[in-house]
Amino acid sequence: MALHEQCVGATDEWYTPPEIFKALGVRFDVDVSSPGSDVTPWIPADHFITDRSLSSLWCGFVWMNPPFGGRNGLVPWLEKFVDHGNGICLVPDRTSAPWFQDFAPKMEVLLFTRGKIKFIDADGERGSSPAQGTCLMSIGPKGFEALHRAERSLGFIPRSCGKYA
Question: Domains in the chain and their CATH numbers?
Answer without folding.
Answer: 5-156 (3.40.50)
